[in-house]
Design a protein that fits this description.
The complex is a heterotrimer of chains A (338), B (417) and C (541).
Chain A: H1 2-5, H2 50-65, E1 70-74, H3 78-83, E2 94-97, H4 103-116, E3 123-129, H5 130-135, H6 138-146, E4 152-157, H7 198-204, E5 209-214, H8 218-229, E6 235-240, H9 244-247, H10 254-264, E7 270-273, E8 276-280, H11 289-294, H12 309-326
Chain B: E1 2-6, H1 7-17, E2 22-25, H2 32-43, E3 51-54, H3 58-70, E4 75-79, H4 81-86, H5 88-96, E5 102-107, H6 121-125, E6 132-135, H7 139-156, E7 160-165, E8 173-177, H8 181-187, E9 203-205, H9 214-243, E10 251-254, E11 261-266, H10 269-282, E12 287-292, E13 294-296, H11 300-307, E14 312-317, H12 327-335, E15 342-347, H13 357-368, E16 375-377, H14 382-394, H15 401-408, H16 411-416
Parallel strand pairs in B: 2-3, 2-4, 4-5, 5-7, 6-7, 11-12, 11-14, 14-15, 15-16
Antiparallel strand pairs in B: 1-8, 6-13, 10-12
Helix pairs in contact in B: 1-2, 1-7, 3-5, 7-9, 10-13, 11-12, 14-15
Chain C: E1 8-10, E2 25-29, H1 35-39, H2 46-54, H3 58-66, H4 72-78, H5 82-86, H6 98-112, E3 126-130, H7 134-145, E4 149-153, H8 162-165, H9 174-185, E5 190-192, H10 200-206, E6 211-214, E7 220-221, E8 234-236, H11 237-246, E9 255-259, H12 263-274, E10 279-283, H13 295-303, E11 307-309, E12 312-318, E13 321-329, E14 335-345, E15 348-351, E16 355-356, E17 370-371, E18 374-375, E19 388-390, H14 401-419, H15 456-461, H16 472-479, H17 493-497, E20 503-505, E21 512-514, H18 524-528, E22 534-538
Parallel strand pairs in C: 3-4, 3-6, 4-5, 6-19, 8-15, 9-10, 9-15, 10-11
Antiparallel strand pairs in C: 2-22, 7-16, 12-13, 13-14, 17-18, 20-21
Helix pairs in contact in C: 2-3, 2-16, 3-6, 4-6, 6-16, 7-14, 11-12
Classes of the chains: A alpha/beta (338), B alpha/beta (417), C alpha/beta (541).
Chain lengths: 338, 417, 541
């Protein structure tokens, strides 16, 4: 955020992908007609896939940051399945898929190989969905962190196991309907008080860099990838990527829903170095969580057949706590944007 | 250089001579001394240009090795028992991706009940994982097989497991000739990967393959093992020429030329078997043995030839394929197709139970008398089993069987009193 | 690399998989009509010229204005900018200061001596324009650009019409007006001053004109009957404002009443103040809310110390004493007399009660239809008399400079078509870019730039221009506040947000194209387009 804020934006198109009024050198990677398109056309992600978008955003930014000297380990999941069904690959980066749970460890191995081969310029990204990161891949992730291996791990968080058909992960939010937390019974949807906050856990490892980002804020995301690639050691980037299918929103609302997640405070966007929060993306147009929840059929049971005031208030409390905890309304520490 | 040392240390030194570039270390008995030995070699600088990574699990160990190998680094790890099961998914993955990782398995039983001692259940659990599995008969062979393993793995782009009996070999102090670095370098060229994750020549490795090509991918893995059947004896021969001793190969025969009875076994038990054969030969019994060095690929033709015209074959097996019997004999029958050779399976030494010359001799004798059952369990305490079975017949809730048996045989009672 | 079968693939090979077949709706780029353009009586493509101005390409911006309006510097000052009233930005913070940027561009063009050239071939046709006001000048300008020979006959001593004789200097400095008129003259337009057309029939009989455009304006002041002891103390606003231009400055005295509530009343009152009146009071029969004058003019007048007497009518004058009747509004908002009277002392009374058109010169024209004091025209600005067109204040329309200029442009196009024996067909209008079609998230908060104002002291005593202009930096800032409603401004959002890379960036100024081979029809691009320039349309199967 600090880096992005140095860019003087103009009024038209401040928050857009590109800005023809800016000098080419400070425009976003995604605005470049010759961007890498690390994830190529023809992939089989659903319409409006946030993860496909997030992955291209992140890897294109990384490719620019390291001048194309990048290798990628990918966990099993939607991202892997929709991008590499034989005989076609959508990747335009050197890419390896091994297993669901081991992307971080594979990344460690890659980084070790590059080091021992004397290829210090080649950098490593390991990536996966929330299931492959916060659940089954968590041990490998933690191991990579504590050893401070030279890997940037990117989690594309769409808040459930989407590849297998929308099952709860430990990143699934409270009250959300999934196929394993159905909208049935007295307290429909996912249980309150469960789940884990992996960015904070990552910070607890004391690794050099941890950040959250949203597919709805490209500038911030690109800045964070760039920042991460400028640092060596274990780094973690947790990117919020809505899944229209799994969340039950329109395919064209992927970015809107991601935006509302951030603007409501439910998904706090911040960065931390060596375990301390060093920046946050402040809320620009605060909205009640209801605005966010209502867009998604996974929360429909909160509003129909009758409003579940108690649990809506509990979700609002989660957002309010995030806002307090990360100072999301603190304009004195302005985020990426003027 | 000839030295008296622990098997694990000899193995560690042999691995180090192969100039591994990434070593993944995770402790599990009885393999631990190997990675400790390597750790010391790296930390002391004797093994340079090597990343020694203390991982958080065997699953991570294999995964890190996968990442390293895919990026063109010579990768090594070691494990045993529960460890190999914990990494099982990655074991399959390494072979599926055709990554020439070499892994030592310090063979040990699998729980429950938990047991740290030697048998072959762990390696057998992953016999179909697409890895080449070589079994060492003694520490010299264990040492030498690692050097051959890297060469074989990298030539064929397939991972190799070197199986070494836990404690019996890993912890045994024996005289071992640890080769000179120059000879190893002459034998083992630098790793030239068949494919590599490289930004200079980017590819996508690890695609999802559907029904339209999966069979073919699997067949090609089989084909690699068939190639290995040819390469393994050649490598052993090359090794003999460079190092001046015979090690490895598909199998070793012992007095099989005129044998009417042939004993087949994997690993260190072959030493005891040979001693018994020596005794029986001295008494004029036409008995011999085959020590299987390569279990995967299974040397069907070589075994067929080695057994020759024997009337009967007895397998001494340190793993139980529960519900059917022996893994080795099951495979061996393929080698004996079209012949009326009698095959008897003897399950022995599970969980580290000693396989004594006396017991072997008893079994061999019964075999020669044609009174050996098709499947038998060496030195089984039937009284204990019968008591437990009776308890289970009478009472539904009998408690844990292992503890009950220990009580029966007095171990616990002795400790308590 | 000898790649292992199936598990290792070539990078980017998924191009073979044409995911466009998944689509049920396709995005298409559209240009929607920005509300500013829609509201502009002169038909300016405001969004387009702001687009150029945003880039600092002021000349291109100016040339874009000049396509529709030959007097940007005048317009930026005197136009009542209905565009700003329609501006979608008002729903975010404040409308874009379009008039201020236009004025900046107009002034810059004068300073830089930018001009336009006739590029069309001479048509050989000649057109007579009667009246050198905004409408006549605009028509002449456009006709000249279309290659026609144009003669303007103007009754007065200067060109400019109401721009000169109706709008005080402090709102429109004369050097600005002169410069922009000169630019039109430089195109070869002939202006014959002091040449009143008294009898159009006679003129047409003696001169060969292929078409005529009538734009004589409305210069006859409406009078109210006020019994007065000294009629010399009562004059009309038209004469007052005209007199200041011709040098016949009237003596108004220290205390001046202005009767009326329109913009002309404001001009008259503010001019009176500048002419030395210590007290100027506007007398109006209704309330401020009902006053037709623009609010900013009332505001500026009040700042300058002009006083207002609401709900009052002037009944009579006697010896400097004016009798005023109090009014009250009825249920319909109309003023009704109350029978209560009061007296006001004043040295003079200026009537600003509106103007009429002097139609006497049209007496014998065949087919002409006059209704309610104005000339009737058809949808192509043509009067009932073939080849005679009319516009500006003399036809039924709102009487503003901008409307007049718009009439001039439209008439020129219709006349051009007429001269080619066809009928002008305006291009179909695009769908309006309403605020709901925008995604306002993408526009950052940028408060409007306030134009500098002349010190009050000087405003009360001189005719210096009251409202200052923008400079380069704040004009740029202001231009960049434009939301570009309904028209692509090349923000790269569609190019960026497509998860399928199905948007092709064609390069600066060339916008984008969809690659329908891969577009899955998710509509993210349409939803995230800040300016509503993408529309989803169903696929036909």
């Amino acid at each position: 955020m600090t880096g992005a804020s140095r860019v003087k934006f103009y009024q038209t198109g401040t928050f857009t992908v590109g800005n023809r009024l800016l000098d080419v050198s400070v425009r976003s990677v995604q605005s470049d007609a010759d961007r890498n398109n690390s994830l190529n056309s023809g992939h089989r992600a659903c319409q409006g896939c946030g993860e496909a978008l997030g992955a291209r955003y992140a890897l294109d930014a990384a490719m620019r940051a390291v001048n194309g000297r990048l290798v990628v380990a990918n966990a099993t999941g939607c991202l892997e399945v929709f991008s590499t069904p034989y005989p076609e690959s959508s990747w335009r980066v050197a890419w390896l898929h091994s297993l669901f749970a081991n992307a971080a460890a594979v990344g460690t191995g890659m980084a070790a190989a590059m080091k021992v081969k004397g290829r210090k310029d080649v950098r490593v990204i390991a990536q996966g969905g929330d299931g492959g990161t916060v659940d089954i891949g968590f041990a490998c992730l933690s191991g990579m962190f504590e050893r401070d291996d030279d890997v940037l791990y990117i989690c594309y968080d769409n808040e459930a196991y989407m590849n297998t058909g929308i099952q709860r992960s430990s990143a699934t939010p409270a009250a959300a309907r999934t196929m394993t937390t159905p909208a049935a019974g007295q307290e429909p949807g996912n249980v309150f008080g469960q789940g884990k906050n992996v960015p904070l856990i990552a910070m607890a490892h004391g690794i050099p860099y941890v950040a959250t980002a949203s597919v709805a804020d490209l500038r911030d995301l690109e800045y964070k990838v760039g920042r991460a690639m400028a640092i060596h050691g274990a780094r973690y980037l947790h990117v919020h990527v809505p899944c229209p299918l799994g969340w039950g929103c329109d395919t064209g609302d992927t970015l809107k829903v991601a935006r509302l997640a951030a603007e409501s405070g439910l998904f706090p966007i911040f960065e931390a170095e060596a375990g301390e929060v060093t920046g946050r993306r402040t809320i620009r147009r605060r909205v009640p969580v209801e605005d966010y929840l209502k867009m998604q059929s996974r929360f429909a049971h909160l509003f129909s057949p009758k409003r579940d005031e108690r649990r809506i208030a509990m979700i609002q409390a989660i957002a309010d706590r995030n806002i307090r905890r990360f100072g999301l309304l603190d304009k004195s520490e302005q985020g990426a944007h003027p | 250089m000839l030295k008296q040392c622990e098997g694990s240390i000899a193995i560690a030194e042999a691995v180090a001579l192969c100039r591994p570039e990434v070593i993944c270390a995770y402790p599990i008995t009885p393999q631990t001394h190997i990675v400790e030995g390597l750790g010391l070699l790296v930390k002391s600088g004797k093994l340079s240009n090597c990343e020694y990574i203390n991982v958080e699990s065997e699953f991570a160990a294999m995964s890190v090795a996968i990442g390293a190998s895919a990026c063109g680094a010579r990768a090594y790890t070691a494990t045993a028992s529960q460890g190999i099961l914990y990494m099982a998914e990655a074991v399959y993955n390494a072979s599926g991706l055709g990554l020439p990782i070499v892994m030592t398995v310090g063979n040990r039983s699998i729980g429950a009940p938990i047991n740290i001692w030697n048998d072959h259940t762990d390696s057998m659990a992953l016999r179909d994982a697409g890895w080449i599995q070589l079994f060492a008969e003694n520490n010299q062979e264990a040492t030498d097989l690692h050097i051959q393993a890297f060469k074989l793995a990298e030539e064929l782009s397939v991972p190799v497991m070197v199986c070494v009996d836990g404690f019996i070999l890993t912890h045994a102090y024996e005289r071992v000739d640890v080769p000179e670095q120059s000879k190893v370098d002459a034998f083992l060229p630098p790793y030239e990967p068949r494919q590599v994750v490289d930004p200079d020549e980017p590819v996508t490795i690890g695609a999802m393959v559907g029904p339209e090509a999966f069979m073919e991918v699997r067949y090609l893995a089989h084909h690699k093992q068939m190639q290995a059947l040819e390469r393994i004896p050649q490598l052993a021969e090359e090794f003999r020429r460079v190092f001046g001793r015979a090690s490895g190969g598909l199998l070793h025969t012992y007095h099989t030329e005129d044998a009417e009875t042939v004993i087949v076994a994997l690993g260190s038990v072959n030493g005891t078997i040979k001693d018994v054969i020596d005794q029986m030969r001295a008494e004029g019994v036409k008995i011999g043995s085959v020590s299987l060095c390569s279990f995967r690929p299974f040397p069907t033709a070589a075994l067929h030839a080695a057994i020759g015209h024997a009337k009967r074959v007895v397998t001494i097996e340190k793993s139980l394929s529960v519900g059917i019997g022996g893994n080795v004999s099951h495979n061996l029958r393929m080698a004996l197709q079209g012949r009326d050779t009698k095959v008897s399976t003897v399950i022995a030494g599970l969980g580290g139970r000693a396989i004594t010359q006396t017991s072997l001799r008893k079994v061999f004798t019964r075999a020669i008398q044609d009174t050996l059952e098709p499947l038998s369990f060496m030195d089984l305490n039937t009284a204990v089993i019968n008591r437990q079975l009776e308890r289970e017949r009478v009472t539904r809730r009998t408690g844990p069987a292992a503890e009950a048996i220990l009580r029966d045989i007095g171990t616990m009672a002795a400790r308590v009193s | 690399m000898n790649k292992p079968f199936a598990i290792t693939l070539d990078v980017g090979s998924s191009l073979a998989n044409k995911t466009g077949s998944w689509r049920t709706e396709r995005p298409v780029y559209v240009d929607r009509l920005p509300p500013c353009n829609h509201a502009c009586p002169a038909g300016e493509n405001i969004q387009q010229w702001l687009f150029h101005a945003e880039e600092g390409n002021y000349e291109a911006a100016w040339r874009q204005i000049m396509k529709d309006n030959p007097m940007p510097a005048v317009m930026g000052r005197v136009c009542y900018h209905t565009c700003e009233g329609a501006c979608n930005r008002a729903k975010l913070d404040k409308p874009v200061g379009i008039h201020a940027i236009e004025r900046f561009l107009g002034d810059l063009a004068i300073a830089e001596k930018w001009n336009v050239n006739v590029e069309a071939k001479a048509s050989g046709k000649s057109v007579l324009v009667v009246g050198a006001g905004p409408s006549g000048l605009a028509a002449a300008y456009h006709l000249a650009l279309l290659g026609h020979a144009v003669t303007i006959r103007e009754a007065g001593p200067f060109a400019g019409g109401m721009m000169r004789f109706g709008i005080p200097k402090y709102r429109l400095p004369r050097e600005v007006l002169d410069a922009e008129i000169q630019r039109i003259v430089d195109l070869g337009v002939k202006i014959e001053l002091n040449t009143r057309v008294d009898d159009l029939d006679a003129v047409l009989a003696t001169h060969r004109f292929d078409a005529v455009f009538l734009a004589v304006g409305a210069h006859l002041a409406k009078r109210a009957y006020i019994p007065a002891g000294d009629a010399s103390k009562i004059l009309d606003a038209v004469s007052l404002l005209r007199g200041m231009e011709t040098g016949e400055q009237p003596l108004l005295g220290r205390r001046v009443l202005v009767y009326g509530g329109g913009n002309t009343a404001m001009d008259a009152a503010r001019s009176a103040k500048r002419l030395g009146a210590t007290e100027t009071i506007v007398v109006y029969r209704r309330t401020r809310e009902k006053m037709p004058a623009h609010d900013f003019e009332v505001q500026e007048a009040m700042e300058e110390g002009i006083m207002f007497k609401w709900l009052s009518t002037i009944k009579s004058e006697s010896g400097g004493t004016f009798t005023v009747e109090k009014m009250k509004l009825d249920d319909k908002g109309k003023p009704q007399p109350t029978g209560e009277y009061e007296e006001m002392q004043a040295d003079s009374l200026v009537l600003a009660l509106g103007q009429d058109v002097d139609l006497s010169f049209l007496g014998k024209l065949k087919g002409l239809s006059i209704n309610d004091g104005v000339v009737q025209v058809d949808s192509n600005m043509m009067t009932g008399c073939k080849g005679v067109f009319a516009g500006g204040d003399m036809v039924p329309a709102e009487r503003t400079v901008t409307v007049a200029v718009g009439h001039g442009k439209k008439a020129a196009r219709c006349i051009d078509a007429y001269l080619k024996n066809s009928v002008y067909a305006p291009p179909p209008k695009h769908e309006l870019a309403v605020f709901d079609a925008l995604n306002s998230w993408y526009y950052s908060d940028a408060p409007a730039t306030v134009q500098p104002m002349l010190d009050l002291a000087r405003r009360e005593s001189t005719f210096e221009e009251v409202v200052g202009g923008l400079d380069q930096s704040n004009a740029l800032f202001e231009a960049r506040r434009c939301l570009s409603c309904g028209n692509c401004f090349e923000c790269d959002n569609c190019f960026g947000v497509c998860p399928d890379n199905a948007v092709i960036k064609l390069g600066q100024g060339k916008r984008y194209a969809f690659n329908y081979d891969y577009c899955k029809g998710c509509s993210l691009c349409a939803n995230e387009c800040p300016c509503g320039a993408i529309k989803m349309v169903p696929e036909t199967i």
